[in-house]
Amino acid sequence: MVSVEKKCFEGLKAIIRVDFNVPLDINSNVIDSSRIKAAKPTILKVINDGGSCILISHLGRPKKKEKRLSFINIIPEIEKVLNVRVKFAEEATGNVTKQIVEDLKPGEVLLLENLRFYPEEVKGDKNFAKKLASYADCYINDAFGTAHRAHASTTTMAGLFKNKKYSGLLLYNEVKAIKKVLKNGEKPVLAILGGAKVSSKITIIENILEKVDKIIIGGGMAFTFIKALGGSIGGSIFEENKMTLALSILKEAKKKQVKIYLPIDVLCSKEFSNTGSKKIFEINKIPPKWQGLDSGPESIKVFKEAIMSSKTILWNGPIGVFELESFSKGTISIGNYVAKSTKRGAFSLVGGGDSVAAVKKFNFENKVSYVSTGGGAMLESLEGKSLPGIEALSN
Ligand code: AMP
């Protein structure tokens, strides 16, 4: 995989697969422009070199044309973030678009209409990919968030460019961060796994057992392990059909000498709300009707030691119901210690869904080494799967 950093784009038209799949309100205003910001360095690299950019992306999951999901609605926001004028082609392919592309001058940026308006995109259609590819001298993929999809713009197109394909800076940094944790992480390597369910994390656990020295298992998923070990978990969330698996994970970890940290105590309530009464119980002695919603102080103490003594940290999943203020303290403490450990020199990667939301909510974003932009793509990487978009760039 060759990074755009290694290439000068002077006089070249680069077609760049970006991830502009931004959240919109009902009036199609952009709620969060992080993804546009994340693509900015690669776009600027090309235009500062004296090249031009043809940007392609999807927005939402339309099956056909939908006014609400046209990129025309968000051009002003893209221009604001990039601080450059952005031309727009109302059709992703066709003669009009061909002419607009031909007229594109060095330093200019063009965005093509939402690729998901064309069913060929998700099918990975070769003819569609060829039409898009015909506009450009080279191909750049900077859409890590869709690298796990074998679509026309993410995978098929890369195959058409042979040695004229590059990874954008964002995609390159994401892949580097994952490698830094799972391939060449400085030891001890720690994974902090939280979230609601074991079932959604099993493949990750199985994959990282080979690669890490310690794992903290927190949040709702811990209760399946505690119950499987014979504890009383009251009304806490758990998955009956995953209890045997939980025990075999613990056995496997022991065999591989991976230390597992389970919670020791837990903050409980009888209600899933901020206002109900709260009480701390030992993790395996929760009375009926009480449910564990956040890690308790003794658990945090142990987790702290594990975090502060690690050189590489992966964090996936909150360790409590952080959306409710009353049960957010555990997740905030974890964020604090990960930030402290990072300051001391550890490498920390926060990736996959809700832990990213938590890190942003509690302002740890700039205090950890890397926050992944790719939910599904990051999860599949942590599961050890190879991503078609990345593979296609490397072949
Ligand atoms: P996941 O998408 O699997 O990472 O799960 C994230 C969700 O897990 C968040 O919405 C949290 O509120 C939830 N969660 C974390 N700890 C608990 C818990 N002890 N009980 C119920 N839900 C939890």
How far do the termini sit from each other? 8 Å
Cofactors, ions and other ligands in the entry: adenosine monophosphate
Q: Please report the number of helical segments.
A: 15
Structural class: alpha/beta
* Average pLDDT over all residues: 96
Oligomer: single chain
What's the number of structural domains? 2
Task: Write down the Rg.
Answer: 23 Å
Instruction: Write out the CATH superfamily name of the largest domain.
Output: Phosphoglycerate kinase, N-terminal domain
CATH topology type of the largest domain: Rossmann fold
Strand order of the largest sheet: 3-4-2-1-5-6
Number of strands: 17
Question: What is the architecture of the largest domain at the second tier of CATH?
Answer: 3-Layer(aba) Sandwich
Brief summary of the model shown:
The protein is of the alpha/beta class and 395 residues long.
Key features of this structure:
17% strand, Rossmann fold, binds adenosine monophosphate, 2 domains, 15 helices, six-stranded parallel beta sheet, alpha/beta, 395 residues, single chain, 37% helix
Tell me what the structure shows.
- Helices cover 37% and strands 17% of the residues.
- The mean pLDDT is 96.
- Strand 1, helix 1 and strand 2 form a beta-alpha-beta unit.
- Strands 3-4-2-1-5-6 form a six-stranded parallel beta sheet, with helices on both faces. A six-stranded parallel beta sheet has the order 10-8-7-15-16-17, sandwiched between helices. Strands 12-11-14 form a three-stranded antiparallel beta sheet.
- The longest helix is centred in the first third of the chain and has 16 residues.
- It has two domains: 169 residues, Phosphoglycerate kinase, N-terminal domain (Rossmann fold, 3-Layer(aba) Sandwich), CATH 3.40.50.1260; 198 residues, Rossmann fold (3-Layer(aba) Sandwich), CATH 3.40.50.1260.
- It is α/β, with parallel strands linked by helices and 395 residues long.
- Adenosine monophosphate binds next to strand 14.
